[in-house]
Write a structure and sequence with these properties.
- The complex is a heterodimer of chains A (115) and B (112).
- Chain A is an all-beta fold and 115 residues long.
- Chain A contains no helices and eleven strands.
- Chain A is globular, with a radius of gyration of 13 Å.
- In chain A, 37% of the residues are buried.
- By secondary structure, chain B is mostly beta strands.
- Chain B is built from no helices and twelve strands.
- In chain B, strand 7 and strand 8 form a beta hairpin.
- The radius of gyration of chain B is 13 Å and the shape is globular.
- Classes of the chains: A mainly beta (115), B mainly beta (112).
């Protein structure tokens, strides 16, 4: 079974530029998550999708971050414009519907450096 | 709301020594507890989980964790570590809202 795929793996941009990350969850997983992991901290949930609907985006900085999952499969996370403090690893995870214990499977992440 | 505290940011040990990575949580409701491991340049992998039943849970690679409700702890232990166990370990708690809250992580470094 293929795991969660993410691209790119690394990205370096200047502040005020825009950037987009892509995630393809495990086949059949209805729930998709984007996390931000700043160096020295644990992952922080940015947004959670159930199919193509948003379940929780309470910690998403909506003035600059956006995410979509139009067909309920893959997803993109965008930052526009980027700030220095957005430097982090962005992790995508997925889980199956009906998984009461919320076992999430994580992708390898995208490491973003904002200069 | 729930929170997780991992008491040690770094734990260096020698190969074949025992290790304990500490985790305390707070939650106002029933909890599910998890340990994830992150090897360099990789995503998080589930190591073990406590859902219900026996308070001692084990992983396939020799780690174990014990849920202690009175002390609100879920410490991770291994009696003898290998070089390959070098990684960052994250404790996480899931409350009734299905949301996972992670600790800040503990970097375990196993030296020869």
């Amino acid at each position: 079974e293929a795991g969660v795929a993410q691209s790119p793996r690394y990205k370096i941009i200047e502040k005020r530029q825009s950037v987009a990350f892509w995630c393809n969850p495990i086949s059949g997983h209805a729930t998709l998550y984007w996390y931000q992991q700043i160096l020295g901290q644990g992952p922080k949930l940015l947004i959670q999708f159930q199919n193509n609907g948003v379940v929780d985006d309470s910690q998403l900085p909506k003035d600059r971050f956006s995410a979509e999952r139009l067909k309920g499969v893959d997803s993109t996370l965008k930052i526009q414009p980027a700030k220095l403090e957005d430097s982090a690893v962005y992790l995508c995870a997925s889980s199956a519907v009906g998984n009461l214990y919320n076992e999430q499977f994580f992708g390898p992440g995208t490491r973003l450096t904002v200069l | 709301a729930q929170s997780v505290t991992q008491l040690d940011s770094q734990v260096p040990v020698f190969e074949e020594a025992p290790v304990e990575l500490r985790c305390n949580y707070s939650s106002s409701v029933s909890v599910y507890l998890f340990w994830y491991v992150q090897y360099p340049n990789q995503g998080l992998q589930l190591l073990l989980k406590y859902l219900s039943g026996s308070t001692l849970v084990e992983s396939i690679n020799g780690f174990e964790a014990e849920f202690n409700k009175s002390q609100t702890s879920f410490h991770l232990r291994k009696p003898s570590v290998h070089i390959s166990d070098t990684a960052e370990y994250f404790c996480a708690v899931r409350g009734s809202n299905y949301k996972l809250t992670f600790g800040k992580g503990t970097l375990l470094t196993v030296n020869p």
